[in-house]
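Notebook B, p. 112. Complex prediction, attempt 2.
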Amino acid sequence: MRNTTETLETIVAFARTVRAAGVGADPERVRTMVRALDHLDVLDPSDVYWAGRLTLCSDPADLPRYDRCFAAYFSGDTARVPRRPPSVTVTRSAAVPVAPRADGHGGERADPRTATACETEVLRRRDVGRLTAAERAEVARLIALLDTGAEHRRTRRYAPAATGRVDPRRTVREVLRNGGEVSAVRRRARRTRPRRVVILVDVSGSMSPYADALLRFAHAAVRSGGRAAEAFSVGTRLTRLTRELSHRDPGTAMAAVAAAIPDWSGGTRLGVELKEFLDRHGQRGTARGAIVVIASDGWERGDAALLGAQMARLGRLAHRVVWANPHKARPGYEPLTAGMAAALPHVDHFVAGHSLEALERLATLVRTGGPRA
Amino acid sequence: MTQPAADRAAEIGSPGELVGRLDAHGYLADEGAATAAFLALRMRRPLFLEGDAGVGKTALATTLARLLDAPLIRLQCHEGLDAAQALYDWDFPRQLLHLRAAEAAGTADPDRLEAELYDRRFLIARPLLRALETAPSVLLIDEIDRADDEFEAFLLEILSDFTITIPELGTVAAAEPPVVVLTSNRTREVHDALKRRCLYHWLEHPSHRREVEIIRRRLPAVSERLAGRVAHAVRHLRADDLLKPPGVAESLDWAEALVTLGARDLDPATAAATLGAVLKHRDDQRRVTARGLDALLDGG
């Protein structure tokens, strides 16, 4: 065997490359890779490939990234840590955390404190597409506070309850404790759990004034929904954002989202995207029985008939489908775009999504299943 | 006396050797699956298998059990699965009966009676406890993505130290940790902490050649040519954007259906008659038929 320190260094450096490419290769996983190589041939590229793939990756999405890193790292090129996506992308898409910080130290923090309740009230109704940087920061802060926890559904798990069916396990335990005397009958009832919430945010060009606020809304949902919320971006590519959005800090989460979305401000292929979502995630259970929120203006460049068919499929799978359209609040708005017209028959709630107030209503709708807005 | 599974696992010197052993038991593994299984045996780490339905996740576990000559203990996950169904449960009716019998006999010593009630004979071992008590064994935790996430947390504990504490009886530790295989169809994201304890392998559909071999191996009555035609058509179907792309299980079903009907070749007529064996969704059948079965069977 070769010098072990050298091998170790190579593996650690390789793992760093893999981690930089977005694979969650934490130190524990790297240790496992080293241990796996004890049982394999370190000099055999294929063994090294599999040792790394089996221990460092944990998701099908990791595999292409891993393959790229492996090829780059072991093909003789110098081990370059892949470049982070240019920060320009972050600034354009998630402008909020960057802009206020630039104008001074802690300006972002000072603003909300001085803002009066009245100003906040006005801000609540303003269209988020037409705010100044400082106002945006304040809105972003308020969105982060939204509680979008979902309504509850009954599960198959039981929990002790005052009323309900007899719980033989606990009843008998009680009887045994009392030496065979049946003193009280214990009961149990089905537990409830929050319904899964799935949010699909359109990040295509026509949505760019609203995408930031809506992604922040998705962040609040993922944060407050625990493991029951999922978020995706749609545009020309479907991207799962749940992992990126699970950062507690909105700024970190938004930066991660900006890095993860490959198709900012591109075109819209809602039908194709929705089909991909249903094929890859929905059919298998993500959308099944869930509350699905689609945040989009419904500008469909592709085939509206396909969108209609996919919406029908979604309607059959989901518990409720909510469509939030930022343009809905505009005076005289009619859902005339082909995409919107095709989708509407399969939507349970059609709501606005242009202001803080609208997002608050959306959160309430998700949480309580409230009346048609 | 059977040989301990650890020794059997130690006999296997390399992933390549494991390919041969799996092959001898009817499982044609590619390099990735073999390396994954090899490391799972050697490192005693649970193996987490993901992949589309029908790529052979469960089959890998059952074959490993046969290869190690160890019993396969299977825990099928579903929503609402809890400790009592997965781990152990007390046999309450029998306990009560025992209590009544003791009362009737006039036993006066309550302490002794209580000790008797929590005797091992009143304990019903469910799959996880059985797997710890049976050495060697292969524990298959099937479709973990169907269980609730609370269950994952609970599983985490057991998979990290292979012991179970039963308050009334004490701790049960595995003499030899079972070989654990977890499968998931990705209906939801499984928690990272659980995956971190495991080796992760994504199973792909087999290559054309391997699929032909699998069909020939499992169904010797199928000719090389017919198996090739079926594998070719199924490959087309997988690329065809269907609601339910066919897995290896569907290829086998299809080949078997064709042989049962006495078909020598896969032509549009026989394909139309047997399409239900490979496409199990009405929309998919309609779609493929509308596009024409000739197109599907082209080449091959």
